[in-house]
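Late entry, evening session. Most of the bench is empty. Finally got around to the prediction I had been postponing all week. Sequence below, unchanged from the version circulated by S.P.
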Amino acid sequence: MLKIKYKDNIINPYYKKIVVYLNGEKVLSGKLKGSNFINFYNDTLKGQLGNIELQDILLGDFPKLIEIKNKLDKIKINTSKTEYEKLDNSIKELFNYDGTSQKKTKKRKFAFNPLTGKQDDIKSFFENSIKPVTCYFCNIDYINVFDIDKGTCKSGFTLDHFIPKNEYPLLALSLFNLIPSCYTCNTKVKGKQLPWEDEKDISKTSPSSVEFEFEERVKFKTFFSNNNLNIKDEAGFDVLLKEDFTSVYKKYINVFHLDERYSYHKYHVLEMIEKRRIYPDSRIEELAKITKQTTEKVKQDLFGTLLYDDDLSKRSLSKFTQDIARELGLV
């Protein structure tokens, strides 16, 4: 539900991590011995894939990946099932980085795949370059990097392929197709489900896309059993995600079970309501005068710094808290 904020130069280090590395690896056997990943792609697969540039596959922004996906769909329609399966298998073998397809393939073109075992390297790139803290799909679970024995780093995130790699293996290494997410979102709830309803909305529903506007267009809203906020327990109200005027993110909300998962955190709303009772605007203004601070600073101290944090991904439940705070007139 939160857009990934990439560094301005994110492409250059990823280029060095993947493209430059692959360019130097001599990986092919038989007649192709001595060739490398990039040469092999350009010489054997590029023509079959409608001359899609390898750099666009690996480094293209998300709208560019949608263009590639659509091109692959057309190739599949216009190619016989047998020929497409051969092409698909070649792509899976070449773009596989966890070793699974190599183990299953008896007749391989590669003496070894240079990407095998590189899953940790790719993950470390995200650890160092993006430094994810909470899941970008749900903003519930922390997925931050932490130190264990002797300075060894571990992380709590998985890398989700927003456009599924089982159907589009060509995009398995695409920088902007990889979303740092929690295990619950990636495996338990999303699985093979697609978080978009209409094909035209794919780019709008990926946190890696410039078109992703979930944070602005969808808000948490409370629905109380009475209008005077006289709520004694969680049974007296609901908190739901509501999108105004459109339904671009309806499937997204359903796939990740966001309404159901956030209902567990209604206690947090009760705490905010209780604080709001104790600290109405008049009391906050009084505290501001006594402490010689702005009312915004007093609210920040009372209700949490995340109310004014520009990067909501740094704290769990931050969007949830901020939306409810605005509804209660705290910000």
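Two things to note before I forget:
Strands lie at 145-147, 153-155, 158-161, 178-181, 218-224, 237-243.
Residues 231 and 237 are 8 Å apart (CA to CA).
Will write this up properly tomorrow.
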